[in-house]
Amino acid sequence: MSKTKSVIITVAVRLKSARLPRKAVLDLGGKSLIERLTERVAQATIPEAIYWCTSTHQDDDPLEQLVDNTDAWIYRGDELDVMSRFIEIGWACNARTVVRVTGDNPLTDPEMMDHMLTLHAKNNAEYTFTDDLPHGTRCEIIEMAALEKAQGLVEDPDSSEYMTLMLRRPDVFDVLEVKAPYPEIHRPDLRLTVDYQEDADVITAIYEAFNGSPPPLKDIISWIDRNPHIVEMNKDVQQKEPDGHINTQLTGDA
Question: Is this prediction's pTM over 0.85?
Answer without folding.
Answer: yes
